[in-house]
Write a structure and sequence with these properties.
Chain lengths: 128, 370
């Protein structure tokens, strides 16, 4: 399980946890709260090439549909199948059981402009 | 949000905030989209009881010898059914038989009616009804700004009402009583917008917070749950109720809106009758139909509907049904004779998803068992 200080955030409210050449991606606690009850998740496919800041997944709540943007470019190596049966894991455990997919990173340099937790918190506060 | 300052607040605004409602701009009113979550609130109403602030709704009164004539001639349904203490769901119609509003009119006494109208149409309805009343001996009074309204909805609502106002427990569906609460004139009707049994309480602003508090206390054994507009929408769509402005408007008729049951031709002349009769006899080109998704996904208002590769209309309301755990929706389709069970497709995120025509309502709750 990643620790909060090991996670980086995007301006579109995804989190990314990097371990060497690989990374796990999900959406932030703040984002799940804004979306409300998640009822359906469309994940990328294994081996799919995703490109940073391009939509690669969809989270549907009762209220609305939300595009999830790639936090970094790379090849999808795993997806969280549990979300198909229990999409509410995104609400109840966005940083752990509600992770969405894993990638093999395409370009480590892309990670530089991501926010740490403190910067993200500040970003959220200012965007409200 | 900086716009919040200009929004109209209901008398329950502080109460909604105390319950941590997520307040949004709903047609100029500051109202909660949800409290703890739409699914929890939806389940509370289906299984036990929920409480809603619906103070944005309007109240227009008809007083005078022609009160019956006005409501009978300006709307589609038959108000002979609204004997004293009873209400009828009906549509106010324009000259082209378009729906000016969908309403519930109650007969309070001889020559005295209260009409519950939608928030967004209060002024329009009032002006229209005043015009209709010009040559009649009846006074049309918009008292919307005097009243707040609470909806207590769910199979356990009656257990709360038994302690709050035992006389209201004898009401039939669509029944209404006038009652002094805290020395003020109030109305309690056995109505709602959820498909469940329940009550709507119309009361002056100064006592509405007290009433809310009493319901919260009397409802605590049943885990009474404050509910927002999100759950109100999923509940009403499952129950097959129209949302005015989305599923019904000035350009669509009661027949097109799949509400032929709310039209009484036998009662004689009323606004739009000839057009409605022609539509009934000759059929119509477009009709509101229910759809249910066969695959995963959540349809939304505006989604295109296809039959055999051809676009046949758009959804006007659509969402995830928490009870059926499937996507549901309604929309005007230009194949009015499609039968329930027939296969269609819905466009979601540029992909076609399998769906079927569904009968309405999608779900029959405790309201049907009274």
């Amino acid at each position: 399980m990643p620790k909060q200080e090991e996670i980086k955030y995007t301006k579109t409210h995804e989190w990314i946890f990097v371990e060497g050449a690989n990374a796990t991606i999900g959406i932030s606690e703040h984002a799940q709260g804004e979306m409300g009850d998640v009822v359906f998740v469309e994940l990328p496919k294994i081996d799919q090439k995703i490109e940073k800041e391009k939509p690669c997944a969809v989270v549907e709540s009762v209220k609305s549909a939300f595009d999830i943007y790639a936090a970094a470019s790379g090849d999808v190596t795993a997806i969280n199948d549990k979300l198909n049966g229990d999409p509410a894991l995104i609400n109840t455990s966005p940083l752990e059981d509600g992770w969405m997919y894993k990638i093999k990173l395409g370009n480590q340099d892309e990670l530089k402009d991501l926010m740490d937790f403190a910067a993200y918190q500040e970003f959220v506060k200012q965007s409200v | 949000m900086s716009t919040a300052q200009t929004l109209k607040k209901t008398a329950l605004n502080k109460t909604l905030k105390k319950h941590k409602g997520k307040l949004v701009d709903f047609h100029g009113w500051e109202l909660p989209i949800q409290f703890e979550g739409i699914l929890k609130e939806h389940a509370a109403v289906r299984n036990s009881v929920g409480i809603f602030d619906v103070s944005h709704m309007g109240q227009i009164f008809f007083n005078g010898p022609d009160a019956f004539k006005l409501i009978q001639k300006s709307t589609t349904n038959d108000f002979r059914l609204a004997t004293i203490g009873r209400g009828v769901y009906s549509h106010i119609t324009n000259e082209e038989a378009g729906i000016v509003d969908d309403i519930i009119g109650f007969c309070l006494a001889l020559n005295r009616y209260i009409v519950i109208v939608n928030a967004t149409t209060i002024e329009k309805d009032y002006e229209w009804l005043k015009k209709k009343a010009l040559k009649m001996n009846v006074e049309v009074v918009d008292r919307s700004s005097e009243f707040s309204m609470i909806a207590l909805q769910g199979p356990k609502a009656i257990d709360i009402m038994e302690k709050f106002a035992p006389e209201a427990n004898n009401l039939l569906r669509f029944g209404i009583i006038e009652k002094k609460i805290l020395d003020k004139d109030c109305f309690i009707s056995r109505t709602g917008y959820t498909g469940e049994d329940g009550f709507e309480i119309t009361a002056p602003h100064e006592i509405i917070t007290d009433i809310w508090q009493q319901f919260m206390e009397l409802g605590s054994p049943y885990d009474i749950t404050p509910c927002g507009l999100g759950a109100r929408d999923t509940l009403r769509l499952e129950a097959g109720y129209l949302l005015y402005g989305q599923d019904a408007d000035d350009d669509n008729t009661t027949i097109a809106a799949n509400c032929a049951w709310a039209v009484c031709f036998e009662k004689g002349e009323f606004t739009g009758r000839d057009i409605l009769l022609k539509q009934k006899q000759e059929g119509i080109k477009r009709k509101l139909k229910g759809i249910i998704l066969e695959e995963r996904g959540v349809p939304r208002p505006g989604c295109k509907v296809f039959k055999d590769g051809k676009e046949i209309g758009k959804l006007t309301s659509a969402t995830y049904s928490p009870t059926l755990k499937k996507g549901i929706g309604v929309g005007y389709l230009n194949m009015p004779k499609l039968k329930s069970g027939e296969e269609i497709e819905i466009e979601l995120h540029s992909k076609l998803v399998k769906a079927k025509i569904s009968k309405l309502p999608f779900y029959r709750g405790s309201a049907y068992k009274i």
